[in-house]
What we know:
The protein is α/β, with parallel strands linked by helices. The protein is built from 32 helices and 24 strands.
Amino acid sequence: MPTSNTPARQIRKVAVLGAGTMGSRIAAHIANAGVPVVLLDIVPPGTAADAPKAVRDKIVLGALDGLKKAKPAAFYTADSARLLTLGNFEDDLALIADCDWIIEVVAENLDIKHALLERVQQHRRPGTILTTNTSGIPIASIAAGLSDEAKPHFFGTHFFNPPRYMRLLEIIPAAATDAADVATVAHFCDQRLGKAVVRSHDTPNFIANRIGTFSMGNAIRLMMAQGLSIEEVDTLTGSALGWPKTGTFRLGDLVGVDVLAHVATNFSAQAASIHDERQDVALAPFIAKMLENKWLGDKTQQGFYKKAGRDEQGRDQRDFLDWQTLEYKPSTRPKFPAIEMAKNVEQTGARIAQLLHADPSHDRAAAFYWPLLTELFTYAANRVPEIADNIVEIDTAMKTGFNWELGPFEMMDAAGVRATTEKMRTAGLPIAANVEKLLAYPHALSEPGPTWYKDDPTTPSGRQYFDPVSSSYKPVPVAEGVSSLAVIKKQRGVVRKNAGASVVDLGNGVAAIEFHSKMNALGDDIVNLITQTLKPGSQQVADFEAFVITGDAANFSVGANLMQLLLTVQEEEWDEVELAVRAFQNMTQVIKFCPRPVVVAPYGMCLGGGVEISLHAAARQPHAELYMGLVEAGVGLIPGGGGCKEMVLRSIEAGSSIRPDARGEGVEIFEALKKNFETIAKATVSTSAAEARGLGFLRPSDSITINRERLLTDAKLKARVLADAGYAAPVPRTDIPAPGENALATLKLAVWTMREGQYISDHDAKVANWVAYALCGGAVTPGTPVSEQYLLDLEREAFLSLCGEKKTQERIAFTLKTGKPLRN
């Protein structure tokens, strides 16, 4: 559900009532946005009225402690916790009086919700927005006990767990809900919480859980009918379909078997009120037995799977439950010929088409996929307009609430609507009425139809969708400020490109450089395109006033192309290695000294060389979920593209200047230098953009975008602001005061101490000493003025020396094979 302009009402303070797993994490994420939160829960039963406040707040204090220890982290940084005000319903409910939005997140029990909301109305300021976070209780039922004044300001806001990472927010209005209040919350959750907001009708389980429950229940039914194992079904329902690699049952363990059972039971209780072709969603007998045994998933250490130690590479091993005997069996890592063939198909849509239309008589995978997907397509098509106004809301809900790469209607397009439907007719399967409407639509011969979606570069979203209610195509709605390079390329084309990167005209005098290598690894193609585009005198520098480096992929960049490096090193082509490092350094210098401002907008994983690109930009506009780190030490190297040089400069900025103390050391700069040395030597990676700022990778002036879909627009705006302010490129420095030999000796002593304590290996120590050498400017007198090029030369010397080490080569090979670091 898109939002547009800023609403008149602002949300400046929020109350969250209920500090359980969901409520506490909603509160934590609102605090991540910099908004104060009142978090309340019950007084522990049996607690005396005159007990100390800490005793009466025991439940909410325990929730805060859990938030601080949560993995994955609930807070962007530990400092976010200061925005939480804790209390209990008995003593502190009056605190909600100055809150702009009150969210009820207590147990999924209508009587409990009614009892609390009755008390809330005694303290709530008239006009305050009041919502309930329920996964399926009818909103109308919860609203029934509210006053006439409160009802217009009440509706459902269904967050998905964990709220920081799951982007979906379902908003479910009640009959009397004020549309302006819905717009206020939608705007806040979009811009401040990074949510994909969809509007759901007040029907059982709303959108995502309705479709997700059907899909999961169907997978279980097919598993039992076809004699498949839990492990086999997880292989079939994982990344091959563009679904989370956990598959059906491993995801169930993460969510909680009891939670899944509650959602299914909740639907069964309401099914009589609706028309649904699958009203019988009774729990499978083996799941009922699991609930009886308290095998609830990860929170009870066993569910569909149970941990069975670790393998030689340190990966968790799990035994899977035999659903027929209720005994656990060792993993067999099942393989299916159809999936093995599909691994060669990179695009998810094409892979789905191949899997769906494979011959089911020759492969158990194909026999499973045909009913799984065709029944999903029919079920989803039959839900419009029952659960949502259009297909876009359903696809968005499944992509952002269940992490499907494609929604069910996008999957049907990929499989081929006509081809799939014809096969279904031949097999005597029912065809959804809405699908028949799509097939009957008069598509032009030039169109690929019938398809639920079709490209339309004239619309802001770049797409139209088929609306079965009106039997017409409509623009896919998109909020103002939401953009993507994929859409802009349809509208404007590409200025220049090679195999690794492209230059795209964003309009208004700004161009974007986008990477599109595998995992956006930085190879020669990307280095050459950036250098040729941004160097003084290039055609692009003449044509554009500012640049943005970003993309639409899952990750900004995993760093340098290690495979390319390893092959060159193994061939002992040392001149080529040195030329490649010089070229990379030249690229980062071109970014830094480009006569036009360059804004880097990193997101996802931004590692190694990706960080070095960011460090050299005029400014950065990161996405909040940023995993950023100079990780070269993990493969036995040091940053060689200017990363060490830029961290030296940041150390000097942090220390102001070198003021020698009695020992001849710059105390201020050394503390900053030591911190940056540890960050590089330990290959520390941030778990958020806020943490990346604390590590020194981002500057205080670098603002953070919380909604991933707004990153490109925000970065473009920042680049435009820099250009309009009369941007002047910095001048290469030749007066950098080197920390020198005293700082180097101190850092080397710290490395020696770590090695003596057997905390690190000999090779770790060697790498760390090279990091210290590069950061200190070598063994020179403290304060000796050196140039940026001098520091780059030191980096290159260290990098090349470590490339020649056998243990470094072993580390690179191991990481390429396993994706993990080797500590040899």
